[in-house]
Predict the 3D structure of the following.
Amino acid sequence: MSTEVTRQAGPGAGVAGGLVVVLALAAATRFLEQTVPDATEGGPFEQLGAAVEYPVYAIALGLLGNAVLTATGWRDRLTGGFRTEFFIKTGLVLLGASINLKVIATAAGPAVLQAIVLISGVFLFTWWLGGRLGLDDRLRALLSSAVSICGVSAAIAAAGAVQAKKEQLAYSASLVIAFALPSIFVLPWLAGVLGLSPEVAGAWIGGNIDTTAAVTAAGAIVGEQALQVATIVKVTQNALMGVVAVALTAYFAFRVERRPDAPRPRAADLWHRFPKFVLGFVAASVIATWYLAAGGDKAAVGVANDLRVWFLILAFVSIGLEFRVSSLREAGWRPVGVFAAATAVNLLLALGLAALLFGGFAV
């Protein structure tokens, strides 16, 4: 009966139904994000409740919804409403409004140098190791971008540049979350054990943890000074996301996908493949920087940031809903090994750079 109704209603009903599911799970994510810290305050899980951010809740609820919809036979009928690409690109454009390029250029010289060296070194190592273990080039690009730049956001930017499969993106996002969550607690603890200054600890956290939300949580555990430096370092890496997207677009267009008998790709082909939302990301950053410099109201930028969180929640929920267990089985252990090894290299390289560049730095 339900199949017949869906068939008669047409694909529009499936899209609308899928959007309703995504919105409902997003609202539940927001509820958990806002209520769990208060509910766990003063108890044994206080730190965990305060540290877990919305990407974790969103993906977990998306996976739960995926399991329920799959078991009831509704998942495939509603996939039209799981608009991961639209949600994430809109969220990333809005993310640009929170990045002040002027501050990065004038007050965060060490962060720029650290970001360039760290991104280049970790990306190339991950790309090389993935090639040695025989990973698909698109998955290599996603893992390399995620672990070297800014986690899920970078993976999605790379996915647009190399035209990766949704299953590869979902797999990469899952690895980012799995590694970022324990880092929230492990890195502040290690910073204390090593006796790092707040500035060095913040630079290490910002350069090593893959998601902005987790960086914020870990930096806050160390202290206000560490949080400020960690944010600047991570924001600097975020700003370089567009550069990596351009490089990947060119590499895949001119090298990976070019057949010997095919004509040489033109500039128009490169433009066609380039993820246009990156331009929106940069434009939002420039506009917000100019607006605030001209004495604009910070509340307006705050509204953009709140909208960004909502769109990213919708995207993470959709990632969970679109995820297929079969992709994990097909990928096997090799992507996990590559990501783990790259994380270890990132950990050591970021520590060395943080100590070198931020040893005498004071907020």
About this structure: Residues 11-40 form the longest helix (30 residues). The CA atoms of residues 120 and 148 lie 8 Å apart.
